[in-house]
Specification:
The chain has about 290 residues and is of the alpha/beta class. Helices cover about 40% and strands about 15% of the residues. The protein is built from twelve helices and eight strands.
Length: about 290
């Protein structure tokens, strides 16, 4: 299937997105994490586009989308959700399944809270919604920086998106790291950390991460009241969002399908075929 690489002017910003499949087919929106961009879905898109209209945007400040400076754009998760919401309106999407990973989860949860009637189903791949998913002290540096934007706290986070930190994020928890294409983390560096301004953007979002945890009670209420169909496809060896985060969905969504695969945070880099084998029948059942 052909993937098109497109741009749209959204709220005055040049916004990049990948698109594939028939526009009259049921829609699937892929929301990327960090350190990443829509590039992380380059192999998933053709695996779905024979049956679905697939959209994968880059958020402002990420990938090929415009990167206004931190003094020109409010880099918060609310703002990222505003931008994706406006793009989907621009594309005329009023009913779709969400696929969320990492940062894609808090962006997606905001869309679901705003427009619950639009969400046909959710696939979450290491996209957290519960504090049970936080592994050890993996998230504490983000919260520490949110409390105190000191240079010492910032340096810890800069290490997370350094070349070495990016490689770790893509390869940890993968039984055979040689199956992970090095282009995945070198592209991630270009997407989020290739300039000081890009790093500054990431630091703003790191500081705002606590807003996602504060939103969790509303997200859980949305799950309970909507009983939205949900599939968790999770790398069980993820040292950022662990398997307890996947299992926690069943507390609010008893019919949620939870699958723990032998992989890490960026599961699609090592277990694409296994993930697709779970995603396609789930979407066929709930999206049509």
């Amino acid at each position: 299937m052909t993937t098109h690489h497109r741009y749209a002017e959204i709220a005055g910003r040049h916004t990049f997105y990948r698109e594939a499949g028939r526009r009259d087919a049921p829609a699937v929106v892929l929301l990327h994490g960090t350190p990443a961009s829509s590039h992380m879905y380059r192999n998933l898109i053709p695996a779905l586009a024979d049956r679905y209209h697939v959209i994968a945007p880059d958020y402002p400040g990420f990938g090929h989308s415009e990167r206004p400076g931190v003094d020109q754009f409010d880099y918060t998760f609310d703002s990222l959700a505003d931008h994706v919401d406006a793009l989907l309106d621009h594309l005329g999407l009023t009913r779709y399944a969400l696929y969320v990973q990492d940062y894609g989860a808090p962006v997606g949860w905001r869309l679901a809270l705003r427009h619950p009637e639009r969400i046909a189903a959710i696939v979450t791949q290491n996209g957290n919604a519960y504090v049970e998913g936080f592994v050890g002290d993996a998230m504490e540096p983000l919260f520490a920086y949110g409390r105190d934007r000191s240079e010492a706290n910032a340096d810890v986070l800069r290490g997370l998106i350094s070349p070495e930190g990016l490689k770790w994020q893509y390869t940890h928890g993968v039984p055979d790291p040689t199956v992970v294409d090095p282009d995945s983390w070198t592209n991630a560096h270009t997407a989020v950390a290739d300039t000081e301004e890009s790093v500054a953007i990431q630091l703003e979002l790191f500081a705002d991460y606590i807003s996602n945890v504060e939103l969790y009670p509303q997200v859980h209420e949305y799950f309970r009241t909507s009983q939205v169909p949900l599939l968790a496809v999770w790398g069980r060896n993820d040292e950022i969002f662990g398997p307890a985060g996947a299992l926690a969905f069943t507390g609010d969504l008893p019919t949620a399908e939870v699958n723990l695969l032998d992989g890490g945070h960026f599961l699609l880099e090592s277990k694409l075929d296994a993930a697709v084998a779970l995603i396609r029948p789930f979407l066929a059942q709930h999206l049509g």
